[in-house]
Design brief:
single chain; 259 residues; alpha+beta; Alpha-Beta Plaits; Ubiquitin-like (UB roll); 3 domains; 4-stranded antiparallel sheet; 13 strands
Length: 259
């Protein structure tokens, strides 16, 4: 089964695979090892190791074992679980040997091209798996990727601040607890987001004023910007008796010439 699936994807020229949540099994089933739960212990361990999403069982859903350990290993190894948008070109279905009365025992495969905005390449720029936490504060970083505050007007015309914290999905719970403990808010909103990111690299350059680090931004492999690091420029400004703005300008110009 595993060899056949891999060979099939290769013959179809599939470059990226995205899967939905695994359907949860129910009840018990008989196996070579005796009576086991609908989600076999080996399958459950694969879910936990891969941090895979699972869809809760319903009275209209599949009964018994819905995913085998081999199937779980295969999907978690080659597929991602981020939501994507595609233009569908082909759809295929494969039927299993079991024939339940309540639902079709079939697996669907949709093939198409991923959608990206502004003609941007799909690989390396769009990243999912992030959570945005927001709360309103009107009376006044645990692993945050970005933090910003927006002035807002709340009820009774009170001035307030919207605190937004962008974190990795796995850090959302911890960050929300920090916000609840350290601020006066009574609730934090959470929603999944995606963002486009450029590749970045920090390098040291020798300038006429001394050594300074600069951040290089690349988009699709091309250099799109070079920014001097603030702390290094601040140190050089003090050592050379120049303004910070002058040092940042000269370091940036010399870095662009050298790089």
């Amino acid at each position: 089964d595993i060899v056949g699936v891999i060979a099939g994807f290769r013959l179809l020229g599939i470059e990226q695979i995205s899967a939905g949540p695994f359907p949860a099994g129910t009840g018990f089933v008989m196996s070579d090892h005796g009576r086991i739960p609908g989600i076999a212990p080996a399958t459950a361990q694969i879910y936990a190791t891969a941090n895979a999403p699972i869809r809760s069982a319903t009275q209209w859903g599949p009964k018994g074992e819905t995913v085998t350990p081999s199937g779980a290993s295969l999907v978690t190894s080659i597929a991602g679980f981020d939501q994507i948008e595609i233009s569908v070109s082909k759809i295929g279905y494969g039927a299993g040997s079991r024939d339940p009365e309540d639902y079709p025992n079939a697996l669907g495969l949709w093939i198409g091209e991923t959608k990206t905005g502004a003609n941007l390449p799909a690989d390396g720029l769009l990243a999912g798996g992030l959570s945005l936490l927001e709360t309103n504060i009107d009376d006044i970083e645990a692993g945050a990727l970005d933090v910003w505050m927006t002035p807002i007007q709340m009820k009774k015309n009170r001035p307030g601040v919207l605190l937004s914290v962008l974190v990795k999905e796995g850090d959302a719970d911890q960050s929300a607890m920090v916000i609840l403990r350290e601020t006066s808010t009574l609730g934090v909103r959470r929603r999944a987001v995606e963002r486009y990111t450029a590749d970045r690299e920090i390098v040291e350059v020798e300038t006429s004023l001394g050594t300074a680090r600069v951040k290089i931004k690349r988009v699709d492999g091309d250099v799109a910007g070079i920014t001097p690091e603030y702390e290094d420029c601040r140190t050089l400004a003090i050592e050379n008796g120049l303004t910070l703005a002058e040092v940042m300008r000269r370091v940036g110009d010399e870095a662009r010439t050298r790089l």
